[in-house]
Amino acid sequence: MSALPVLMYHHVTPNPGLVTVSPETFRAQVAWLAKNGWHGVGASEIEAFFQGQPLAEKSFVITFDDGYLDNFVYAHPVLEEFGLKAMLFAVTGWIGDGAVRGGGADCPDHRECKRRIAAGESDTVMLRWPEIELMRRARTFEIHSHTHTHTRWDKQLPDNTERNAALAEDLRQSREILRERLGQPSRHLCWPQGYYDADYVDIAQQAGFDHLYTTAKRPNLANSDPLHIGRIVVKDAPAAWLAKRLFIYRSALLSKIYLRLKGENAFQP
After folding, report:
1. What predicted TM-score, i.e. pTM, was given to this entire model?
2. Cα-flanking dihedrals φ and ψ of residue 267, to 5°?
3. What is the CATH number of the domain that holds 120?
4. How far is Cα 138 from Cα 254, in angstroms, rounded to an integer?
5. Which of 56, 101, 138, 184 has the fewest CB neighbours in a 10 Å radius?
6. Alpha-carbon distance 30 to 144, whole Å?
7. Is residue 219 included in any domain, yes or no?
8. Overall number of domains in the chain
């Protein structure tokens, strides 16, 4: 295959809102993927792809950002049913401990999740480690880093030295917690809100991350840079919409033409 499409989700919940796909839409999309022979791959296959090793035709990646409870309640059972897996970029500082919650758990919309997190009530809307362990054992989710605090340090600290030191500590904590909880660190990091610059990339590499995920729209080619992995924002739209995007983004040529027609640079830094 010439390019590797990487899908980006946040929420799967019946409560509509920003960055949200309904359970019905998600199931329809995953069912279409499974029926049409798409192969969901994870970190090891992604690493091999960027090292020049071929992947099966129709390979793709599902990613989820942040680590919301609805990923366990609504997305996990669907992925398990259809035998697909996803990569979850967890904000480790928002993940708590406690009992595994059931299908009737409260999964509010994105704005309410943000409000509760800001109010110190993240446990009511975010995953817990036992739920993560259950998903890992079922092989529906791999867990990777979305930093420890999800802070945009460029907005918090104008001094570059202080900003870079804060980011380095943020990444260190995230990687160490993943090592302690999961038995191994991750090499895969997703930038909060998609923001990064050259300093951020250097700091991430020093922390041990060498596969960096953005919100940029770009084709992922075997010879492209794994420090700038592009992703496709998935909408609450029928499977036919997703089919068209995958058809475009699995082709280096079509994706470049598509992005050029939309006035976007496929290889922006």
Report:
1. 0.95
2. -125, 40
3. 3.20.20.370
4. 35
5. 184
6. 21
7. yes
8. 1
